[in-house]
Amino acid sequence: MLTIIDKFKGGPVGITTIATALGEDAGTIEEVYEPFLIKEGFLKRTPRGREATDLAYTHLNRRRENIQGMLF
User: Fold this and answer.
1) For 19-33, b where at least 16 C-beta lie within 10 A, e where not — what string?
2) Averaged pLDDT in 10-residue chunks for the chain of 72 residues
3) How far apart are CA 47 and CA 15, in angstroms?
4) Which of 27, 43, 52, 69 could form a disulfide with 56 if both were Cys (CB 3.0 to 4.6 A apart)?
5) pLDDT of residue 9
6) What is d(CA 64, CA 67) in angstroms, rounded to the nearest whole number?
7) Over the chain, what is the mean pLDDT?
8) Is the dihedral of CA 35, 36, 39, 41 positive or negative?
């Protein structure tokens, strides 16, 4: 979760990109880690990729960056 939040600004990010960043097999992430994180409400799967939820930010004591406000 910290990789998704800190490195990819909370997502969305693809499973292959996450696996490469962690040095882990994408299949292992999908089969072992991801179901638990989704069940606990820390991660959501979207058509564009995986995203950290507000609960994940709170649990890890991180603040979500306001990307929309940075456009203009």
Assistant:
1) beeeeeebeebeeee
2) 95 96 96 96 96 96 73 52
3) 12
4) 52
5) 94
6) 9
7) 91
8) negative
Find where tokens 């990789």 sit: 3
Six-digit token string for 69: 């406000």
Using the Cα atoms of residue 33, residue 62, residue 19 and residue 43 in order, give the sign of their dihedral. Answer: positive
∠27-29-34 over CA atoms, to 5°? 125
DSSP state of 59: H
Q: What are phi and psi of 50, to 5 degrees?
A: -85, 140
| Residue 6 token pair | 């800190």
Contact 51, 11 (CB under 8 A): yes
Chain position carrying tokens 């203009």: 72
> Which two structure tokens, joined as six digits, stand for 43?
């991660």
